[in-house]
Amino acid sequence: MDRSDVTLERMRTFVRVAERGSLSAVARELGVGQSTVTRHLRELEDAVGVPLLSRTTRRVTMTDEGSRYYADAVQILRLVEQAGDEARGTRGASAGTIRISCTAALGVLHISRLIFAFQDRYPDIGVDLSLTDERIDLVREGVDIALRLGPLTDSSMKLRALGQSRRLLVASPAYLAARGRPAVPQDLPDHEGIRMSNIAGSDTLALQGPGGERHAVPFGGRFRVDHGLAAREALVAGRGIAPAHHWLVDDLLAAGRLEVILPDYTPPPIPLSMLILPERAGIARVRLLVDFLAERIGGIPGIGKPR
Protein backbone atom coordinates (compact mmCIF):
# COMPACT_ATOMS: atom_id res chain seq x y z
CA MET A 1 0.00 0.00 0.00
CA ASP A 2 1.24 3.47 -0.89
CA ARG A 3 0.29 5.39 2.25
CA SER A 4 0.49 8.70 0.37
CA ASP A 5 -2.69 7.66 -1.47
CA VAL A 6 -4.67 7.48 1.79
CA THR A 7 -5.68 11.14 1.88
CA LEU A 8 -8.01 12.75 4.39
CA GLU A 9 -10.34 13.74 1.56
CA ARG A 10 -10.71 10.11 0.45
CA MET A 11 -11.10 8.97 4.03
CA ARG A 12 -13.86 11.53 4.67
CA THR A 13 -15.66 10.44 1.53
CA PHE A 14 -15.52 6.80 2.63
CA VAL A 15 -16.82 7.63 6.12
CA ARG A 16 -19.80 9.57 4.78
CA VAL A 17 -20.69 6.87 2.23
CA ALA A 18 -20.45 4.24 4.97
CA GLU A 19 -22.78 6.31 7.15
CA ARG A 20 -25.31 7.29 4.51
CA GLY A 21 -25.24 4.15 2.39
CA SER A 22 -25.61 6.15 -0.81
CA LEU A 23 -23.07 7.52 -3.28
CA SER A 24 -25.49 10.06 -4.74
CA ALA A 25 -26.50 11.41 -1.32
CA VAL A 26 -22.86 11.96 -0.35
CA ALA A 27 -22.13 13.60 -3.71
CA ARG A 28 -24.95 16.09 -3.09
CA GLU A 29 -23.75 16.67 0.47
CA LEU A 30 -20.17 17.35 -0.63
CA GLY A 31 -21.17 19.36 -3.68
CA VAL A 32 -19.30 17.12 -6.12
CA GLY A 33 -20.24 14.74 -8.90
CA GLN A 34 -21.00 11.11 -8.11
CA SER A 35 -18.07 10.12 -10.31
CA THR A 36 -15.75 12.00 -7.93
CA VAL A 37 -17.12 10.07 -4.97
CA THR A 38 -16.68 6.79 -6.85
CA ARG A 39 -13.11 7.72 -7.76
CA HIS A 40 -12.22 8.61 -4.16
CA LEU A 41 -13.53 5.26 -2.96
CA ARG A 42 -11.72 3.30 -5.67
CA GLU A 43 -8.43 5.07 -4.96
CA LEU A 44 -8.77 4.50 -1.22
CA GLU A 45 -9.53 0.80 -1.66
CA ASP A 46 -6.58 0.47 -4.04
CA ALA A 47 -4.32 2.12 -1.46
CA VAL A 48 -5.59 0.02 1.45
CA GLY A 49 -5.53 -3.17 -0.60
CA VAL A 50 -8.91 -4.60 0.43
CA PRO A 51 -12.53 -3.87 -0.56
CA LEU A 52 -14.13 -1.59 2.02
CA LEU A 53 -17.63 -1.36 0.58
CA SER A 54 -20.07 -3.74 -1.03
CA ARG A 55 -22.24 -2.13 -3.70
CA THR A 56 -25.65 -3.29 -4.90
CA THR A 57 -28.21 -1.53 -7.09
CA ARG A 58 -30.05 -0.36 -3.97
CA ARG A 59 -27.49 0.22 -1.24
CA VAL A 60 -23.86 0.48 -0.31
CA THR A 61 -22.76 -1.45 2.79
CA MET A 62 -19.43 -1.98 4.52
CA THR A 63 -17.46 -5.19 4.25
CA ASP A 64 -15.98 -6.67 7.44
CA GLU A 65 -12.69 -4.98 6.58
CA GLY A 66 -14.59 -1.76 5.86
CA SER A 67 -16.26 -1.83 9.29
CA ARG A 68 -12.89 -2.08 11.02
CA TYR A 69 -11.40 0.62 8.82
CA TYR A 70 -14.41 2.89 9.42
CA ALA A 71 -14.00 2.80 13.21
CA ASP A 72 -10.35 3.85 12.93
CA ALA A 73 -11.06 6.44 10.21
CA VAL A 74 -13.68 8.21 12.34
CA GLN A 75 -11.23 8.55 15.19
CA ILE A 76 -8.45 9.77 12.88
CA LEU A 77 -10.67 12.44 11.33
CA ARG A 78 -11.87 13.58 14.75
CA LEU A 79 -8.29 13.87 16.02
CA VAL A 80 -7.21 15.79 12.91
CA GLU A 81 -10.02 18.32 13.38
CA GLN A 82 -9.35 18.71 17.09
CA ALA A 83 -5.63 19.14 16.42
CA GLY A 84 -6.44 21.92 13.98
CA ASP A 85 -8.66 23.64 16.55
CA GLU A 86 -5.97 23.47 19.19
CA ALA A 87 -3.27 24.70 16.81
CA ARG A 88 -5.37 27.71 15.85
CA GLY A 89 -6.26 28.45 19.47
CA THR A 90 -9.28 30.69 19.96
CA ARG A 91 -9.45 31.46 16.24
CA GLY A 92 -9.89 27.79 15.48
CA ALA A 93 -12.95 27.61 17.69
CA SER A 94 -14.72 30.24 15.64
CA ALA A 95 -14.46 28.76 12.15
CA GLY A 96 -16.08 25.89 10.29
CA THR A 97 -19.61 24.54 9.93
CA ILE A 98 -22.02 22.92 12.40
CA ARG A 99 -24.99 20.82 11.30
CA ILE A 100 -28.00 20.98 13.61
CA SER A 101 -31.40 19.29 13.42
CA CYS A 102 -34.41 20.66 15.26
CA THR A 103 -38.11 20.05 15.74
CA ALA A 104 -39.68 22.07 12.94
CA ALA A 105 -42.01 24.58 14.65
CA LEU A 106 -39.57 25.26 17.49
CA GLY A 107 -36.80 25.81 14.96
CA VAL A 108 -38.80 28.28 12.86
CA LEU A 109 -40.17 30.33 15.76
CA HIS A 110 -37.27 30.36 18.22
CA ILE A 111 -34.11 28.32 17.54
CA SER A 112 -33.37 30.10 14.26
CA ARG A 113 -33.24 33.41 16.17
CA LEU A 114 -30.81 31.94 18.70
CA ILE A 115 -28.62 30.74 15.85
CA PHE A 116 -28.64 34.25 14.35
CA ALA A 117 -27.40 35.60 17.70
CA PHE A 118 -24.76 32.85 17.85
CA GLN A 119 -23.48 33.75 14.40
CA ASP A 120 -23.40 37.43 15.31
CA ARG A 121 -21.01 36.47 18.11
CA TYR A 122 -19.04 33.99 15.95
CA PRO A 123 -19.35 35.29 12.36
CA ASP A 124 -16.98 32.70 10.87
CA ILE A 125 -19.03 29.70 12.01
CA GLY A 126 -21.49 28.36 9.46
CA VAL A 127 -24.67 26.60 10.58
CA ASP A 128 -26.71 24.16 8.50
CA LEU A 129 -30.15 24.00 10.17
CA SER A 130 -32.40 21.08 9.24
CA LEU A 131 -36.02 21.23 10.43
CA THR A 132 -37.94 17.98 10.86
CA ASP A 133 -40.27 16.31 13.32
CA GLU A 134 -38.95 12.89 12.29
CA ARG A 135 -36.45 11.08 14.49
CA ILE A 136 -33.32 10.96 12.36
CA ASP A 137 -30.08 9.01 12.55
CA LEU A 138 -27.52 11.68 13.43
CA VAL A 139 -24.61 9.64 12.10
CA ARG A 140 -26.31 8.79 8.82
CA GLU A 141 -27.43 12.38 8.21
CA GLY A 142 -24.12 13.91 9.29
CA VAL A 143 -25.73 15.96 12.07
CA ASP A 144 -23.65 17.28 14.98
CA ILE A 145 -26.49 18.36 17.30
CA ALA A 146 -30.21 17.59 17.43
CA LEU A 147 -32.86 19.35 19.53
CA ARG A 148 -35.79 17.09 20.29
CA LEU A 149 -39.06 17.23 22.21
CA GLY A 150 -40.24 14.10 24.00
CA PRO A 151 -38.61 11.08 25.62
CA LEU A 152 -35.42 9.84 23.97
CA THR A 153 -34.04 6.33 23.84
CA ASP A 154 -30.83 6.64 21.78
CA SER A 155 -28.22 5.87 24.42
CA SER A 156 -25.36 6.04 21.90
CA MET A 157 -25.59 9.86 21.81
CA LYS A 158 -24.47 12.37 24.42
CA LEU A 159 -27.65 13.74 26.01
CA ARG A 160 -28.08 17.15 27.60
CA ALA A 161 -31.44 17.96 29.20
CA LEU A 162 -32.45 21.53 28.37
CA GLY A 163 -35.79 21.90 30.14
CA GLN A 164 -39.47 21.09 30.25
CA SER A 165 -41.83 22.60 27.67
CA ARG A 166 -45.03 23.75 29.35
CA ARG A 167 -48.31 23.25 27.48
CA LEU A 168 -51.70 24.97 27.63
CA LEU A 169 -55.20 24.33 26.34
CA VAL A 170 -56.05 27.13 23.93
CA ALA A 171 -58.70 28.19 21.45
CA SER A 172 -59.61 31.32 19.50
CA PRO A 173 -62.19 33.84 20.74
CA ALA A 174 -64.26 33.14 17.61
CA TYR A 175 -64.37 29.41 18.33
CA LEU A 176 -65.33 29.97 21.97
CA ALA A 177 -68.05 32.45 20.97
CA ALA A 178 -69.53 29.90 18.55
CA ARG A 179 -69.16 26.72 20.61
CA GLY A 180 -68.98 27.91 24.21
CA ARG A 181 -66.18 27.71 26.75
CA PRO A 182 -65.53 24.37 28.47
CA ALA A 183 -65.95 24.66 32.25
CA VAL A 184 -64.55 21.26 33.26
CA PRO A 185 -62.45 18.62 31.44
CA GLN A 186 -65.55 16.47 30.95
CA ASP A 187 -66.89 19.14 28.56
CA LEU A 188 -64.05 18.59 26.09
CA PRO A 189 -65.50 15.55 24.24
CA ASP A 190 -68.32 17.84 23.03
CA HIS A 191 -65.80 20.14 21.32
CA GLU A 192 -63.67 20.04 18.19
CA GLY A 193 -60.09 19.02 18.94
CA ILE A 194 -57.10 19.82 16.78
CA ARG A 195 -54.89 16.74 17.02
CA MET A 196 -51.35 15.85 16.00
CA SER A 197 -51.36 12.83 13.72
CA ASN A 198 -47.68 12.08 14.38
CA ILE A 199 -48.18 11.71 18.15
CA ALA A 200 -49.44 8.37 19.42
CA GLY A 201 -52.50 8.51 21.64
CA SER A 202 -53.65 11.98 20.56
CA ASP A 203 -57.28 10.79 20.76
CA THR A 204 -56.99 10.94 24.56
CA LEU A 205 -56.07 14.15 26.36
CA ALA A 206 -54.11 13.78 29.60
CA LEU A 207 -54.60 16.64 32.06
CA GLN A 208 -53.45 17.40 35.58
CA GLY A 209 -55.86 19.23 37.87
CA PRO A 210 -55.20 21.88 40.52
CA GLY A 211 -54.87 19.28 43.27
CA GLY A 212 -52.55 17.06 41.23
CA GLU A 213 -55.34 14.71 40.17
CA ARG A 214 -55.05 13.25 36.70
CA HIS A 215 -57.74 13.17 34.02
CA ALA A 216 -57.82 11.20 30.77
CA VAL A 217 -60.43 12.75 28.48
CA PRO A 218 -61.52 11.52 25.03
CA PHE A 219 -60.34 14.08 22.50
CA GLY A 220 -61.65 13.98 18.94
CA GLY A 221 -62.05 16.29 16.00
CA ARG A 222 -62.21 16.52 12.24
CA PHE A 223 -58.76 18.07 11.73
CA ARG A 224 -55.50 16.23 12.30
CA VAL A 225 -52.10 17.50 11.25
CA ASP A 226 -48.45 16.47 11.57
CA HIS A 227 -46.87 19.94 11.86
CA GLY A 228 -47.03 22.40 14.77
CA LEU A 229 -47.21 25.48 12.57
CA ALA A 230 -50.26 24.09 10.77
CA ALA A 231 -51.90 23.38 14.15
CA ARG A 232 -51.17 27.00 15.10
CA GLU A 233 -52.91 28.23 11.95
CA ALA A 234 -55.89 25.97 12.63
CA LEU A 235 -56.22 27.43 16.13
CA VAL A 236 -56.21 31.01 14.82
CA ALA A 237 -58.77 30.04 12.18
CA GLY A 238 -61.14 28.86 14.91
CA ARG A 239 -61.07 25.18 13.97
CA GLY A 240 -61.04 23.92 17.55
CA ILE A 241 -59.21 23.46 20.83
CA ALA A 242 -55.67 22.11 21.16
CA PRO A 243 -53.00 21.44 23.77
CA ALA A 244 -50.22 23.76 22.59
CA HIS A 245 -46.67 24.40 23.72
CA HIS A 246 -46.48 27.85 25.29
CA TRP A 247 -43.67 28.83 22.91
CA LEU A 248 -45.89 27.94 19.94
CA VAL A 249 -48.66 30.38 20.84
CA ASP A 250 -47.18 32.97 23.23
CA ASP A 251 -47.41 35.83 20.73
CA LEU A 252 -50.98 34.89 19.80
CA LEU A 253 -52.01 34.86 23.45
CA ALA A 254 -50.41 38.27 24.01
CA ALA A 255 -52.24 39.67 20.97
CA GLY A 256 -55.60 38.26 22.11
CA ARG A 257 -55.92 36.02 19.06
CA LEU A 258 -56.01 32.93 21.29
CA GLU A 259 -57.22 32.37 24.84
CA VAL A 260 -56.29 29.86 27.51
CA ILE A 261 -59.15 27.57 28.53
CA LEU A 262 -59.35 25.44 31.66
CA PRO A 263 -56.26 27.16 33.10
CA ASP A 264 -56.36 24.93 36.21
CA TYR A 265 -56.06 21.79 34.07
CA THR A 266 -52.81 21.46 32.16
CA PRO A 267 -51.32 18.80 29.86
CA PRO A 268 -48.07 17.37 31.25
CA PRO A 269 -44.90 19.20 30.13
CA ILE A 270 -42.69 17.67 27.44
CA PRO A 271 -38.92 17.29 27.96
CA LEU A 272 -36.67 19.25 25.62
CA SER A 273 -33.26 17.67 25.08
CA MET A 274 -30.10 18.12 23.06
CA LEU A 275 -28.46 15.11 21.42
CA ILE A 276 -24.80 15.46 20.51
CA LEU A 277 -22.85 13.12 18.28
CA PRO A 278 -20.07 11.79 20.56
CA GLU A 279 -17.42 11.97 17.85
CA ARG A 280 -18.19 15.68 17.37
CA ALA A 281 -18.66 16.70 21.00
CA GLY A 282 -14.98 17.59 21.42
CA ILE A 283 -14.87 19.95 18.42
CA ALA A 284 -14.49 23.50 19.71
CA ARG A 285 -17.17 25.14 17.56
CA VAL A 286 -19.66 22.39 18.46
CA ARG A 287 -18.96 22.95 22.16
CA LEU A 288 -19.53 26.68 21.66
CA LEU A 289 -22.96 26.15 20.13
CA VAL A 290 -23.96 23.52 22.69
CA ASP A 291 -23.12 25.88 25.55
CA PHE A 292 -24.75 28.86 23.84
CA LEU A 293 -28.04 27.04 23.27
CA ALA A 294 -28.07 25.59 26.79
CA GLU A 295 -27.60 29.10 28.19
CA ARG A 296 -30.20 30.84 26.01
CA ILE A 297 -32.91 28.24 25.61
CA GLY A 298 -34.43 28.98 29.01
CA GLY A 299 -35.47 32.37 27.61
CA ILE A 300 -37.96 30.71 25.24
CA PRO A 301 -41.51 31.15 26.60
CA GLY A 302 -42.71 28.15 28.59
CA ILE A 303 -39.38 26.34 28.84
CA GLY A 304 -38.80 25.48 32.49
CA LYS A 305 -35.80 23.94 34.19
CA PRO A 306 -34.99 20.26 33.51
CA ARG A 307 -36.41 17.75 35.97
Task: Set out the fold topology.
Elements lengths: L7 H13 L2 H8 L3 H15 L4 E3 L4 E3 L1 H25 L1 H4 L2 E7 L1 H18 L3 E7 L6 H4 L3 E5 L8 E8 L1 E5 L1 H7 L14 E3 L7 E5 L5 E5 L4 E3 L2 H9 L5 E4 H9 L4 E2 L9 E7 L7 H13 L6 E2 L3
Parallel strand pairs: 3-4, 3-5, 8-11
Antiparallel strand pairs: 1-2, 5-14, 6-14, 6-15, 7-12, 7-13, 9-10
Helix pairs in contact: 1-3, 1-4, 2-3, 6-11
Mean pLDDT across residues: 89
Number of strands: 15
Corresponding CATH architecture of the largest domain: 3-Layer(aba) Sandwich
Estimated radius of gyration: 24 Å
Widest sheet: strand ordering: 4-3-5-14-6-15
Number of helices in the DSSP assignment: 11
User: Low-confidence segments, ≥5 residues, pLDDT <50?
Assistant: none
CATH superfamily of the largest domain: Periplasmic binding protein-like II
CATH topology of the largest domain: D-Maltodextrin-Binding Protein, domain 2
Order of helices and strands: HHHEEHHEHEHEEEHEEEEHEHEEHE
Structural class: alpha+beta
CATH C-level class of the largest domain: Alpha Beta
How many strands, what sense, and barrel or not for the largest sheet? Answer: 6 strands, mixed
Strand content: 15-25%
Question: Separation of termini?
Answer: 54 Å
Q: Per the principal axes of the C-alpha atoms, what is the gross shape?
A: elongated
Helix content: 40-55%
